[in-house]
Write a structure and sequence with these properties.
280 residues, alpha+beta, Rossmann fold, 2 domains, eight-stranded mixed β-sheet, six-stranded mixed β-sheet, 6 helices, 27% helix
C-alpha cells in the first residue's frame, strides 16, 4: 500500500508544482549566472529565457525596467538561480525558482553532460534540466491582492512626479535642456556577444541567417537552434525593432548584411553592428 501511495505521489508531483507556479506571473532571469564570467556566457541566460517563454512563462531580465505591477509587488516574480554541481568529468546543473522571501518554490531535475567543450556541456546540461518545463502546463492565475485603487494610486504618483519634473525644466534656460544629437559610431561585428567598440573588425567566420518565426523574424547563428535576437516588423517596410537579451535597437537589411543600430548609454553614442548574412 505504501509503495502504491508513493508511486501516486510521484505521478502527481508535476501537477502539484504547476499549481504552485501558477501563482506567479514573472520569471526573473539574471544577465549573468554566478558560475560564469560574463553576460550570457555560453548563451545560457538567453537559452533559459527562451525555454521558459516556450513553456508559457513571462520572463523579465533582472536588470531591466520592470512593469508597474511588479514594481508594486515583487512577490509576483520568481528568480531563477542555478546550482552548479559539476565534477571533474561531467557538467551538472540544477535550477531553482526563488520567491520574494528567498524560499525555493520549484527545483528542476539535474541536467548532466560529459561533453569536453564547455559551451556544449553547459548548454546540454541546461536544456536537460529545463526540459520538464513544457510538461508543467503553466498558466498564470491572476492575483486579486493588487486592487485597481492601488494601481490608480501608483499612476497618480508617477504623474505628479512627471509634472514636477516638467515644471523644474521650464525654469531652466533653454540652452541647458537642449543637447546635441548623439553622434553615430560605426562598428562591424559578427558576434553579438563581443564587446562593442568601434575598433572591432568584421569577422568573416560568423554565419548568420534570418528565419520567419511567429510575429517576426529570428536572427540565427549557424548550428544554433535558438535565435540570437528577434526582429519585430514596423510600419516602415524593411525596418525592424531588434530585441535580444543584451540590447535593443533598430535593424534593417543592407546588401547582404543585417545592420543593427542601438544607443549606448555609457558613451552617449549611437553604435552600429553588422551581421553578415549567408545565402539561403
Amino acid at each position: 500500500m505504501k509503495k502504491i501511495l508513493f508511486f501516486l505521489i510521484l505521478l502527481n508531483a508535476p501537477f502539484v508544482f504547476a499549481q504552485q507556479l501558477n501563482d506567479y506571473k514573472y520569471i526573473i532571469i539574471p544577465e549573468t549566472f554566478d558560475f560564469t564570467d560574463g553576460v550570457d556566457q555560453y548563451r545560457l541566460n538567453s537559452i533559459s529565457k527562451y525555454m521558459f517563454e516556450e513553456a508559457g512563462f513571462q520572463t523579465l531580465m533582472k536588470d531591466s525596467v520592470k512593469p508597474k505591477d511588479y514594481q508594486m509587488d515583487n512577490c509576483l516574480g520568481l528568480e531563477l538561480k542555478p546550482q552548479n554541481n559539476s565534477g571533474m568529468f561531467s557538467t551538472k546543473l540544477v535550477f531553482q525558482l526563488i520567491d520574494c522571501n528567498n524560499k525555493v518554490v520549484y527545483e528542476t531535475i539535474e541536467g548532466k553532460s560529459k561533453a569536453k567543450d564547455y559551451q556544449v556541456a553547459y548548454q546540454e546540461a541546461l536544456r536537460t534540466s529545463l526540459s520538464e518545463l513544457k510538461d508543467l502546463d503553466y498558466k498564470y492565475s491572476e492575483k486579486t491582492e493588487i486592487s485597481d485603487i492601488a494601481v490608480k494610486t501608483y499612476e497618480e504618483k508617477s504623474a505628479s512626479v512627471a509634472i514636477k519634473d516638467d515644471a523644474d525644466q521650464e525654469e531652466l534656460p533653454q540652452q541647458v535642456v537642449v543637447s546635441s544629437f548623439p553622434k553615430v559610431v560605426s562598428e562591424e561585428v559578427s558576434n553579438e556577444n563581443e564587446k562593442s567598440v568601434a575598433s572591432i573588425s568584421k569577422n568573416s567566420t560568423g554565419k548568420y541567417f534570418l528565419e520567419e518565426i511567429e510575429n517576426g523574424k529570428g536572427l540565427f547563428q549557424q548550428n544554433l537552434t535558438e535565435p540570437l535576437a528577434i526582429l519585430y516588423p514596423t510600419e516602415k517596410a524593411g525596418v525592424f525593432i531588434y530585441f535580444s537579451l543584451v540590447r535593443q535597437g533598430v535593424a534593417y537589411k543592407q546588401d547582404s548584411n543585417l545592420i543593427m543600430e542601438y544607443f549606448d548609454r555609457q558613451t552617449g553614442t549611437v553604435k552600429k553592428s553588422v551581421f553578415a548574412l549567408q545565402d539561403q
